[in-house]
Amino acid sequence: MVLFSNKLLVLALAAGSVFAVPAAQAAAYPEHAIRVIVPFAPGGSTDIVARIVTQRMGQVLGQTMVVENRGGAGGAIGATEAARAKPDGYTLSIATVSTMAVNSACRPHNLSYNPLTDFLPVTNFANVPNVIEVNPKFPAKDFKEFVAVLKKNPGKYSFGSSGTCGVLHLFGEAFKMATGTDIVHVPYKGSGPAVIDAVGGQIEILFDNMPSSMPQIQAGKLRA
Q1: How many whole angstroms separate alpha carbon 72 and alpha carbon 75?
Q2: Could you tell me which residues are beta bridge partners of residue 161?
Q3: pLDDT band at residue 9, thresholds of 50, 70 and 90?
């Protein structure tokens, strides 16, 4: 995951440092709360990590970091809102592989922002592993059995992801191609609601990042 800022903000900060604006003329930054857009629903890995990082950022900067969840379309809705925000340094966005790479490849002619020109990175702050997990009632105890059950029952089972054209959707489709299986994709606005449905049995399979699923795996409510 990467913390992104509007491109013009970064350029403005660079110009200020080069031209050495006198301290009396330069306003202290930040003067008020900073908005941080998370392009997925609450409870997912992006949301969890973002809240941990921004809490510490707020302490260091001495200002409130207001996290806003704008889930949908594999992160594209939140990324679009961030790209259109006023470039004054008070709107940041959490970027992921989904918003910066997969979305533009998946819907190249139907994306309202350009990940290469609308943003510049501030810092890379997290890398998280992925996991395939099932509801405990799924009739397989290991990966070999899991694939065998899917092959015997094409189209019977469904898998959830954090959204269409997101990296976890891509993960699921790549799994289907590699194993020759047929499972139905169910997109969510983030991993948070997908985890809830996997635990409740509304979907049998979930492709997810580890942070959002680990508590349920440890509690025995999901099996990895």
Answers
A1: 6
A2: 187
A3: very low
- Averaged pLDDT score across all residues of the chain: 87
Question: Packing angle between helix 210-218 and helix 191-200, nearest 10 degrees?
Answer: 30
**126, 49 contact by CB (below 8 A):** yes
| Statement: residue 160 has pLDDT above 80 | yes
Angstrom distance (rounded) from CA 110 to CA 112: 7
Query: Taking the model in full, what pTM does it have?
Result: 0.81
Structure tokens at 62: 């001495």
Domains of the chain, with CATH numbers? 2-124 (3.40.190.150), 130-218 (3.40.190.10)
Contacts of 183 (CB under 8 A, 6+ apart): 150, 155, 157, 158, 159, 172, 176, 205
Check residue 3 and give its pLDDT: 59
Q: Which two tokens stand for residue 36?
A: 């941080």
